[in-house]
Amino acid sequence: MAGRLDPGWAREREAGAVAEHNGGGGGRGMKPVYQKVMDRGLGDCFRACVASIFEFPIDWMPNFWERTQDAHEFWKMVNDWSDKKLGVKLITTTIGDGHEYLLKNLLCIAIGKTDSDEEHCVVWKNKKIHDPFPGGNRSFYPECFTLIVPTKIKGVDKCPS
Question: Is 160 helix (H, G, I), strand (E, B) or coil?
Fold first, then answer.
C-alpha cells in the first residue's frame, strides 16, 4: 500500500456489505447498475456509478475512458456530457485526514484501488454502498472522490451581480 492515500477513516471494514441508500434518484433509492466492460484499464465502472446514482441504463452514458485514456480529455468529455444531459459537473478531489466531515452523508463516487491493486470506482456514502463490478464484494481503498455539483437549479436563472 506504499504511496497510496489510505486514511484510516476511509478504509472499508465491512466484509461484503452493500448498504442501502435512500437519497438518490429523487428519493426512490439508488438503483444498482453494473459495469459491462471489465477489461483491466478500460473498464466502465465510473459510468456504472453515474448510472446507478442517476438511475439510467448504463448505455445511455458513453464510455469515455474507451475513447481516451488521457485524464484531462476524459474529464472534459465527462463534464461536457454530464452538464448537458444531467445538469451537473462531476468534480474530483482528495479529502485529507481531518476533513472527512466534508463527505458525511454525501452521495458521491469514490475512486481508488481494490485489494488486487486495480483502479476502480464505487458509489460512496460514508462507505462503499455499491460496487459496480459484478459480484464486487472485495476490499476497496478510496484515494479521491467525485462530487456531484448541480449547474442548473430550478427557479434560479442567474446569480446576482
Answer: coil
- Which positions ≥6 away from 148 have C-beta within 8 Å? 53, 88, 89, 90, 107, 108
Strand stretches in 5-64, DSSP E: none
User: What is the domain partition of the chain in residue ranges?
Assistant: 25-150
Strands 108-114 and 88-93: unpaired
pLDDT in tens, 40-59: 778 899 999 999 999 999 99
Please check the confidence at residue 147 and state whether its pLDDT lies above 90: yes
Q: What tens digit of pLDDT does each residue of 83-93 get?
A: 999 999 999 99
6-32 b/e (C-beta count within 10 Å ≥ 16 → b): ebeebebeeeeebeebeebeeeeebbb
Side chain identity, residue 107 = L
Average pLDDT value for residue range 132-160 = 83
